[in-house]
């Protein structure tokens, strides 16, 4: 049988196909481009890499290397520094700036400190020098291939996350029509998370305080004192339900009203305002007399032109108390405080229910809340 003449590529190992049945395995271990002007050196490096199962291609010029890198995906590129090395370093810099590009290894016959510094600045992951030992070349190129693949996988994951963020942003824009960029969405999300954390912290803080109080008087005092830390100076009253649907004053803070006028005002609010909001299930805020009159009618004039916040305190659909905060219209309540006040109202209602059960009272059936002024506090 006449022997087939081997091509130069098969002799040097450049561009030769992987043995039958091993293409997938070899490609899985890495695809490497080897650039070196010297055919013999190039062949030795290629042989070392093929010995450890990598797919390799060899080129003699940087121009050919650029063309190969543009048309084929490589995991690593071995580039040789010759002369001033400018062209090789420029190509290395281009490759390293691409997150999806191959890892770069610089080859130098006699490297010095300047070569090492230039290679590092160009983004090279390693620098190999003569003599090229097969085991050392294979080990170090293997490490570069692994690192490049990790970077590529990380970049693909990042691209996937960016795509998902864009899709979420588009969906959000269709609902809110307010967010115009991903940065705005992230900033808004951060703000929301921060607020939620603050609300959770406030809930835990107040719960730790109120659960220590196992009588009505101390629970009322704790609640009002905590409210003042969140609202600042304000008039505040807590009205407790009786056994016939009426309400009585449980505790109060008088901030800016004459004492005699405050007593009359609070008695009137107990008879008119508290019953009106007993069945509400969320906090309500009113901006002045005109706004309040839409809900309570003529009784709004008792509070004058004040900012008013009403906090219904219900547990298991049963009204346990109604809190009313009010102060001059020129001193509005912070909108940031509203969620915290609602949390306080809910936890306060739960504690009142717990107090009732601890003392064995059948609330709204056998015994009404006490009618006397409990723990009234003057600001």
What do these coordinates show?
This protein has 379 residues and is an alpha/beta fold. It contains 13 helices and eleven strands. The protein has helices at 8-12, 23-29, 39-51, 62-71, 86-96, 113-121, 134-176, 182-210, 216-231, 259-271, 273-277, 289-296, 338-358, and strands spanning 31-35, 55-59, 76-80, 103-108, 126-129, 235-241, 247-254, 284-287, 306-315, 318-328, 377-378. The strands form two sheets. It has a six-stranded mixed beta sheet, sandwiched between helices. Strands 2-1-3-4-5 form a five-stranded parallel beta sheet, sandwiched between helices. Strand 9 (306-315) and strand 10 form a beta hairpin. Helix 3 crosses helix 7 (134-176). The longest helix has 43 residues, at 134-176. The protein is rod-shaped and about 105 Å long.
Structural class comes to: alpha/beta
In helices, the fraction of residues equals 40-55%
Q: What is the overall pLDDT average?
A: 82
For the record, give the distance between the C-alpha atoms at the N and C termini, rounded to a whole number: 113 Å
Strand numbers in spatial order across the main sheet: 8-9-10-6-7-11
User: How large, in whole angstroms, is the Cα Rg?
Assistant: 39 Å
Number of helices, where a helix is a run of at least 4 consecutive DSSP H or I residues: 13
Shape: rod-shaped
**SSE succession:** HHEHEHEHEHEHHHEEHHEHEEHE
* Percent strand: 15-25%
Structure summary, number of beta strands: 11
Low-confidence stretches: 1-13, 16-26, 361-367, 371-379
Main beta sheet strand tally, sense and closure: 6 strands, mixed
């Amino acid at each position: 049988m006449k022997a087939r003449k081997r091509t130069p590529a098969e002799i040097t190992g450049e561009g030769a196909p992987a043995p039958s049945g091993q293409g997938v395995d070899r490609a899985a271990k890495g695809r490497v481009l080897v650039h070196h002007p010297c055919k013999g050196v190039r062949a030795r490096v290629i042989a070392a890499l093929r010995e450890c199962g990598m797919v390799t291609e060899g080129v003699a010029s940087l121009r050919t290397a650029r063309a190969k890198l543009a048309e084929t995906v490589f995991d690593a590129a071995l580039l040789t520094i010759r002369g001033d090395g400018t062209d090789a370093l420029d190509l290395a810099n281009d490759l390293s700036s691409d997150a999806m590009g191959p890892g770069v290894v610089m080859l130098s016959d006699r490297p010095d400190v300047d070569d090492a510094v230039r290679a590092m600045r160009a983004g090279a992951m390693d620098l190999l020098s003569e003599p090229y030992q097969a085991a050392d070349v294979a080990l170090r190129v293997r490490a570069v291939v692994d690192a490049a693949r990790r970077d590529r996988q990380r970049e693909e994951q990042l691209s996937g996350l960016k795509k998902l963020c864009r899709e979420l942003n588009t969906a959000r824009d269709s609902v809110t029509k307010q967010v115009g960029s991903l940065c705005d969405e992230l900033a808004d999300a951060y703000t929301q998370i921060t607020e939620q954390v603050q609300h959770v912290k406030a809930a835990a803080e107040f719960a730790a305080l109120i659960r220590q109080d196992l009588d009505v008087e101390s629970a009322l005092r704790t609640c009002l004192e905590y409210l003042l830390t969140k609202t600042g100076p304000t008039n505040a009253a807590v009205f407790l339900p009786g056994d016939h649907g009426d309400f009585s004053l449980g505790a109060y803070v008088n901030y800016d009203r004459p004492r005699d006028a405050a007593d009359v005002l609070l008695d009137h609010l107990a008879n008119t305002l508290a019953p009106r909001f007993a069945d509400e299930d969320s906090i309500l805020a009113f901006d002045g007399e005109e706004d309040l009159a839409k809900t309570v009618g003529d009784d709004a004039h008792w509070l004058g032109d004040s900012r008013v916040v009403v906090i219904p305190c219900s547990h298991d659909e049963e009204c346990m108390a109604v809190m009313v905060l009010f102060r001059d219209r020129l001193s509005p309540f912070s909108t940031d405080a509203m969620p915290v006040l609602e949390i306080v109202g809910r936890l306060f209602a739960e504690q009142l229910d717990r107090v009732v059960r601890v003392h064995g009272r059948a609330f709204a059936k056998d015994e009404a809340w006490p009618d006397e002024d409990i723990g009234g506090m003057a600001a």
